Every structure is written in structure tokens, then in C-alpha cells.
Amino acid sequence: MTPLKQPEDALQAFQDAWNRHDMQSLGALFHPDATFVNRFGHYVRGVEAIVQMHAPIHATIYSDSTLENEPIDRVPIGDDAAVLHFWSRLAVGAAHPAGPHVVDTLILAVLTRRAGEWRIQALENVTLANPRTGKAVLRDEPGR
Q1: What pLDDT digit, counting tens, does each position of 36-47 carry?
Q2: For residue range 61-88, what is the model confidence (pLDDT) as tens digits?
Q3: Backbone φ/ψ region at 63: left (φ over 0), alpha (ψ -120 to 50), beta
Q4: Dist. CA 21–CA 44, nearest whole Å
Q5: CA 48 to CA 53: how far, in whole Å?
Q6: 30-37: strand order across its sheet
Q7: What's the rounded Cα separation, in Å, for the pair 130 and 127?
Q8: Which of 50, 63, 67, 134 has the most C-beta neighbours closer than 10 Å?
Q9: pTM of the shown model
């Protein structure tokens, strides 16, 4: 993994690791004691658990998926911590039981710098949904 020089570098590094389906590289973006909440509300702590959460789906239903991240904002919390918000568009292919489709999520990530290295301390991923129906929506759909 290329070291993250600033918190925003995590967006591209996360996207690249996902699109290569390289879960070891994905795990390397996180501090050893990091937490992760996926878009379905599954919470895990620790890099090993983060990798274990993602490896099976990348070997199966997300094996032909791609991810595209787009920054929203950065909120600094001192010199060694920042909160990032970013859009993430997941495009899944024929390997998914529901067939090819696209999902938009909003990600909140807390990054901290330890020993000069930026890594993700906590990440939470929320699927965009219509609050009246619960149906997933894309962020650029009319009426959104």
C-alpha cells in the first residue's frame, strides 16, 4: 500500500483496493483497532474482522463489482485527525443474485495519523434510501 500523505488519499486508495478485489490492501488502509460498519449495519472491530467481512463477498457476489468514490468534505480535528464524508457508488454485475445494479452510499470515515501515517480509525457506510418506502435510491435521481 502507498502511504496516505493526507486523509483524502484514502478515497482513491479504498476505491483502488476494492476494484482490484484486494482485501489485504483494503485492510492496510485501517489502523489495527479500527471499526467498520457496512451498509447493512454490520459492525466489526479490527483489521482482521474488516478483511473477513469483505473477502467472502469479493470472492462471490461482488467479484465483478466496481466502486467510485467522490469527496464531499473534510472536517479537521486537530493536526492528527480528520472526518471525511464521501459518496460511494457501487456497481455490481452478473455475479450478484439480484443481477447488475448500482447502489449509492454515503460514507463517514475518521482518519488519524499515528507515527506519521494516516489510516482509517472508523468507517460507517449508509445506503441512500427513500425514507417513505425504504427503497434504495441513487443520489442523482429526480426528486432526491
Answers
A1: 999 999 999 999
A2: 999 999 999 999 999 999 999 999 999 9
A3: alpha
A4: 19
A5: 9
A6: 43-45, 30-37, 117-127, 101-114, 81-92, 66-76
A7: 10
A8: 50
A9: 0.93
C-alpha cell at 92: 455490481
Which DSSP helix (H) or strand (E) runs through 23? helix 23-27
Which residues contact residue 65 at a Cβ distance below 8 angstroms, ignoring those fewer than 6 apart? Answer: 18, 58, 90, 91, 92, 93, 95, 96
- Would you state the cell numbers that stand for residue 50, as one nine-digit string? 474488516
Out of 1.10.540.10, 3.10.450.50, 1.10.3470.10, 3.40.50.1970, the CATH code matching 9-127 is 3.10.450.50
Share of the chain above pLDDT 70, in %: 97
Give the helix/strand (H/E) hosting 18: helix 9-20
Q: Where are the domains of the chain?
A: 9-127
Q: Residue 9 to residues 4, 100, 120: CA-CA distances in angstroms?
A: 6, 29, 11
